[in-house]
Amino acid sequence: HPIIEAVDLHFSYPDGTRALRGVSFTVQPGEALALVGANGAGKSTLLQHLVGAAFPSRGALHVGGLPVDSGHLPALRKRVGMVFPDPDDQLFMPTVAQDVAFGPRNLGLAPGDVEARVRAALETVDALALAGKPPYRLSSGEKRRVAIATALALEPEILVMDEPTSGLDPRSRRHLAELLKAFGHTMVIATHDLDLVLDLCPRTLVIHEGVLAADGPTRDIFRNE
Ligand code: ADP
Ligand code: ADP
């Protein structure tokens, strides 16, 4: 069964902007998918649908076997983790460990389980040594990895990332790409970073003015790059 299934998805903003105009695709569990397209093409709008921050105006969307609608939000939130383009939007507690603990604690997990999740999530992003630091003291590469850990701590099946390498120097980007390649999660990654796409995502969706212009193997789509 696909873990994501979008059928003729349409979305219009209240001002009438038609941001998605008939988007259909399916994603199998474990796939790493790149979502590329010019600014304003509809990438963020589509990602917001995948995490239940927006609901289709028309068409059908299932994520993790659940229809994306207001009735399924709590269940959806446990299945899908979102990493925002700016880590500063995701990190607001006095220490890294507290930031990563925030989500699991909200799920009502026992303190020992929260601690185990924090440790596991920070280990996964090579950031265990940062646990006691205040987020504002971290480098941009470190902040990015910790922001990903806050999503991982919820143990989502699907990770949705918006521009995960923006603002990183080449070394930090390589470090992050290596870590992401080791993840077993289904990943949908909106990005302008062609190196990341080629390195991490076997499949690419190209979105253009709210319509999927291409969906196929990354090597075919970027054959001439
Ligand atoms: P991308 O992430 O690819 O840059 P977006 O999904 O942000 O594209 O935007 C798709 C379209 O929707 C654009 O035309 C954009 O201007 C418009 N849009 C985005 N957010 C809003 C909003 N809150 N209200 C009205 N139009 C919006
Ligand atoms: P930044 O360059 O922004 O500080 P990095 O993610 O590159 O962010 O590095 C943060 C920390 O991780 C540094 O202490 C660095 O030595 C370490 N580091 C960088 N790359 C690797 C790697 N491939 N494996 C393990 N640790 C690394």
UniProtKB/TrEMBL annotation:
Keywords: ATP-binding, Cell membrane, Membrane, Nucleotide-binding, Translocase, Transport. Its main location: membrane. One of its GO terms (cellular component) is ATP-binding cassette (ABC) transporter complex. GO terms for biological process: cobalt ion transport. InterPro entries: AAA+_ATPase, ABC_transporter-like_ATP-bd, ABC_transporter-like_CS, ABC_transpr_CbiO/EcfA_su, Co_trans_ATP-bd, ECF_ABC_transporter_ATP-bd, P-loop_NTPase. It is found in: Cell membrane. Gene3D superfamilies: P-loop containing nucleotide triphosphate hydrolases (3.40.50.300). It is a peripheral membrane protein. Signal peptide: none annotated. The keyword Magnesium does not apply. The keyword Acetylation does not apply. SMART domains: AAA. GO terms for molecular function: ATP binding; ATP hydrolysis activity; ATPase-coupled transmembrane transporter activity. Residues 4-225 form the ABC transporter domain. It holds the Pfam family ABC_tran. Part of an ABC transporter complex. Responsible for energy coupling to the transport system. Belongs to the ABC transporter superfamily. This is ABC transporter ATP-binding protein.
